[in-house]
Amino acid sequence: MAAIEIDGVQKVFDGMERAAVAEVSLTVADGECLVLVGPSGCGKSTLLRMIAGIERVSGGQIRIDGADVTDREARDRDIAMVFQNYALYPHMTVEENLHFGLKIRKMPKAERNKRVEAVAQMLRLDELVRRKPGQLSGGQRQRVAMGRAMVREPKALLMDEPLSNLDAKLRVLMRAELARLHGRVGTTTIYVTHDQTEAMTLGDRVAVISDGVLQQVAPPDELYSSPANLFVASFIGSPSINVAEGVVRDGRLVFAGVELPIPPVDLGGRTRVLVGVRPADLNPFDKSGAGAVPLRATVEVAEHLGAEMHVLFPVVGPASHAGTEVSGDQGHEREGVLLADDGSSLFTAVLPAVGSVGPGDRLDLGIDPELLMFFDPETGGSLQRVSSTAGASSR
Amino acid sequence: MNAAADSPPLRPRLTARRGIGRPSVGKLAIFVIFAALAASCIYPLLFVASTALRTNADYRASPGGLPSSFTSENFERAFSQLHIGRLALNSLMVVVPAVILIAILACCAAYALVHLEIRLSRLLLAAVICMMALPPTVLLIPIFKLVLDVGLLNNRLGLILVYTALNLPFSIYLLTAFMRSVPVELLRAAGIDGAGPVRTLWSVVLPLIRPGLMTLVTLNFLFLWNELIFSLVILQQGMGRTIMVGIAQFQAQPEKNYGVVAAGLLLSMIPPLLIFVFFQRDLARGLTAGATK
Amino acid sequence: MTASSGAGSVGPRTGRRHGARHSGRGLTRWLFLLPALVLLAVLIVYPIGDAIRLAFTSWDGFSAPHSIGLSNFEDLLKDKRFKESLLHNLAIVVAIPIWIAVPYAVACGIHTKVAGWRFFRLVFFLPVVLSPVVLGAYYGIVLAESGPLNGALRSVGLGGLAHEWLNDPALTLPVVIGIIIWATFGVGVLIFLAGLANLDEEIVEAAQVDGASRWQIQRHVVFWQLLPVIEFWTVIIVIASFTAFFPLIYTLTKGGPGTATFTVDFDLYSEAFTSGRLGYASAIGVVMMFIILVTCGGLVALLRWRRS
Ligand SMILES: Nc1ncnc2c1ncn2[C@@H]1O[C@H](COP(=O)(O)OP(=O)(O)O)[C@@H](O)[C@H]1O
Ligand SMILES: [Mg+2]
Description:
The complex is a heterotrimer. Chain B is an all-alpha fold. Helix content of chain B is 73%, strand content 0%.
């Protein structure tokens, strides 16, 4: 086990003008599980492959356990990797797959057997050791791939979308399994995914990447409550955050058709800002906090999900255009923001399921000014709260 | 280390596979071996060309070296003594009809086997593949007898039919692979539009498998132009001989003239070289068909 | 898959049966197949049978063949030249590992994008397009006693290496085998390159991360992934080793010196069209067919067995 330091690492593919990975600096602490998340094509895999040593860096330095490994080949870095398509050796049995990395490193047979046995047991592969990968189900292959990485007892474990080839149910199961394994083994792990739910549930910390640029690295709850910019705010959380333009007038904020007091945020003299509110922070008015301002919503779409429902309703005011490329929960990508027929923004509220709410119904919701997030309309950067007491009330 | 300092990789992923700080001694060794091998592949062309262009005396002075003077005499004698023009024409008159016939028959057969509901089509395809593996030498004598019996010995038609049959199994096999890549939906659409099987083949399937057809035609032309043994046995008579038979027999004479042989070789290489230059991709595709399945 | 695909059914993509709807009823679709089938039946299937029949006859090519029972085969057992030819083919079979290894290694070299790989890939293919007749004539000149090769060796002071390449019983067969390998390795390179292009790169990367050296990756991963391609190439060259030598030997050595380069296919031709013993030659053909069948079948079975 070891810490991994990534220092200004960059990758420009031949014949490409833009960097696939642009000067990313990160530190993964010993034993930590860091998740790299971002929409597909943003450079997550490239970064991971550079850490693994199967892709060269165009610039920067990578240190594992304090040693500069930038120029070392993959095999001299003592890391293990779980690939998206598992990459099991098809001509070897499960057992041989598990043994391979150890045999290559000339480990004595007795010790090898011990390790393989232990890992096979931990991953419940005992029954499968004599089979070949072709005779395994997707979930079983996934476990073998995990096992192959774990028997090595590497300094660090790298995983590139390891669950993306499983069906939805199995994915949730394996996600919990991975969390359990990391808890038990505690190997330094870098985990790549485009699925923000996976990122939030697995990561000690989550690094959000967009277009090769690192946006924010923070623990999941911080990422959710204090995103560094509009991209992170939109990418994290499902359903996606509601964003609309807010106008400052006479010391009050006009936003989504309602007028609110301005919370203690450093607006830097701006009169127009982008304002975001999480769907889960829109509650029925009678259940909202004391400072909440009423917002009358006319339901356009109501999605009943059992325990809760998602209500979509139009709000007054132009839609924001800053939050393009918002990624939904299950990896669906939505282009831009939902729009109502007349071009105004559609907001989503996550409400406890009550009776039969349908299109045309009116709901009284409450907006708590304390829970609003403010972003610069030009840069998308988050506008910071002034006092620290305000932050405490938001989740 | 600045990774970009090394020779720019053509495909980064492939370069990366070779590791990061790799030694280049091995690469140099590979390069030297490859260069020697490449020289052995190019030298025949240079040698034949230079020998054809120089006088015999000049050749004897330094057989492997460069010519000191040029002459067209060898080419003139290739036409007058070796009758290379006549031989080339003979070859074309056999090879071109055979190639066309193969293309037509293979197209229809592959289409029927893949896209028309034919009972036993699996079995027939398996039989075709077995025939591909059959060494043609085994058939030499019975085919000779058959051609003799029906009176087509020393007749171009006989050789055309034999060539067609011998290359048909491979051609059908090759085309079925291309036929399979034609989406069934497209054929159904054509059917719904009222096109019969002939119409569908002509205006839907053929345009889609043009690359396959090109491959087939170039490959068969090359095979047949270069073929020796069946041509030797079926077109034995002097004036009908194909170019390879003519050259093989001419160069077997004890008092052969190297210059004339070289001129003949050079001229006989023209069609293959043209194919090599212009249809390399088609050849490669045809020759590797079936290798990765 | 059922034979009756309903009118509105959205069948599987692989459904070959869909064609039924526009193939018309009756025999029209057989008409597409018929010309090819007739030609194959007459000029391939029937001759196979005839080859076997003729093997039991004596036939000079002019009079009618007459049956002589097994005596052709009995003669074959005593035929020194035939046995020698078989032995030569055996020597060729022994060379098959080289015939596989050379294109395999060259393809791997090209695949690593050695400097000038595009050029090499093109040039290595050149001998393939040339007729064996051309190559035979070319080597006949180049390898002659007083030819350019010996000339070059002598001129650089390596006269000791000069040989009678085509007139030395011990040397000529290896030379001929070498030429055939050289003339065909371009096809092998292409075939192996196609295999390498289909390689699962993720698995190679996994092996890298697992700590395998380049050689270990070759041995434990790439080789196994290419096994089907190797198998394919092996079957091709096994067949070629019995049938590809004729044009080269016909133009280069005529089987000589003596019988040093007689192969089974050249022996078959000589018996039939030089000695006029076509029945006897047919018997050689039958033996040859049998040997190829057994070799290829055994080979495929062996490889299948090793893989499972
Ligand atoms: N070998 C390559 N050559 C050129 N461009 C590449 C290569 N690999 C990836 N890219 C590009 O780099 C960007 C990042 O890719 P990748 O790291 O695979 O994204 P992801 O975040 O989905 O894993 C993409 O735009 C991709 O097209
Ligand atoms: Mg990726």
